[in-house]
Design a protein that fits this description.
Low-confidence stretches: 296-301
Mean pLDDT: 90
Radius of gyration: 19 Å
Helix content: 40-55%
Strand content: 5-15%
Oligomer: single chain
Shape: globular
Number of strands: 7
CATH class: Alpha Beta
Strand order of the largest sheet: 2-5-1-6-7
């Protein structure tokens, strides 16, 4: 049976880059879309399972699960035939996902499948319990580089060239609080399942790609790459060639971000998680449009 591996880490930390490098190994399978930076997010545990809101172990719940999953880009880009979905259940959400990924890995002749959804970091401990044989790779980027990239990305999503100063400080505090949530979730995973987690540094991957990938292959029980993998896809970067990365945030804004980061580290995890937990309890999760093969059908879901 193929082994499952989950790539974890905060958005803008290099999860896509790491996933695309690993997908070039002949014994590793990951769902990819060549038109969109390569490795594709499933948003399965963080979004799809919550949206289904029924137990797929029951016939009615499984029909709903099949209906939802069959409409996703993740299944469309995978090697799993959509028409076979109805034949793999009823079962738990976790086991249904495992069956899909095992099938794909076997079809690709791979020994390991990888899945990359940054939001799964917040559910890592639960995923570890439900997949006792799974391994986890987390990637971490230095704070200043990550913060510049995150602010730039947030502004691009809002089609803004630059955010007014006060709004940018608020945005900085919000994204830093989100990073703290992810780091605390990884700390919990490390505390309970240290032997199943390998932590990778973004800077190490830049400085010594060959050695870093060798460590990962050893961790996954695979032979090393026969040839160092290159960058096959357009980088999923917040910055375009020629952009002044260091001008995206002033030194004062960086100092503010570091101060917020230091303060929030002192708070207990439950307090950091409380606002998000309250939002999730009050509203049904809305998945991004790229989740769906036909996004227009899900504009109001």
């Amino acid at each position: 049976m193929p082994a499952g591996t989950f790539i974890l880490g905060k958005h803008r930390s290099g999860t896509t880059w790491l996933g695309n490098l690993l997908c070039q190994h002949p014994d590793i399978y990951g769902v990819q879309n060549p038109q969109e930076h390569g490795i594709w997010e499933s948003a399965y545990f963080s979004g799809l399972c919550r949206q289904i809101r029924r137990d797929p172990r029951t016939p009615e719940g499984f029909r709903r699960w099949t209906e939802v999953v069959s409409q996703t880009n993740y299944i469309r880009f995978s090697l799993f035939p959509v028409e076979k979905l109805a034949g793999i259940g009823p079962d738990t959400c976790s086991e249904l996902f495992r069956k899909i990924m095992d099938y794909c890995a076997n079809a690709a002749g791979a020994r390991v499948w990888i899945e990359k959804t940054p939001a799964h970091t917040l559910l890592a401990k639960r995923i570890a319990r439900e997949y006792p044989d799974a391994r986890f790779l987390s990637i971490r980027r230095n704070f200043d580089g990550w913060l510049r990239s995150s602010i730039r990305f947030s502004e691009q999503r809002r089609h803004q060239r630059a955010t007014p100063c006060l709004m940018r400080l608020f945005l900085t505090a919000r994204v830093v609080a989100s990073r703290i949530r992810y780091e605390k979730a990884l700390r919990c995973l490390r505390g309970s399942y240290k032997e199943r987690l390998l932590e990778v540094n973004y800077a190490d991957l830049i400085r010594d790609r060959e050695q870093t990938l060798r460590r990962i292959c050893d961790f996954l029980g695979l032979a090393n790459f026969a040839k160092e993998p290159g960058d096959v896809y357009t980088p999923n970067s917040s910055f375009k060639p020629g952009d002044e990365r260091h001008s995206s945030l002033s030194e004062g804004q960086l100092v503010f971000g570091r101060a917020v980061y230091g303060f929030l580290q002192l708070l207990p995890r439950w307090l950091i998680e409380a606002p998000s937990a309250l939002r999730n309890a009050m509203r049904r999760p809305k998945l991004p449009s790229w989740t769906w093969a036909d996004a227009s059908r899900h504009e109001h879901t």
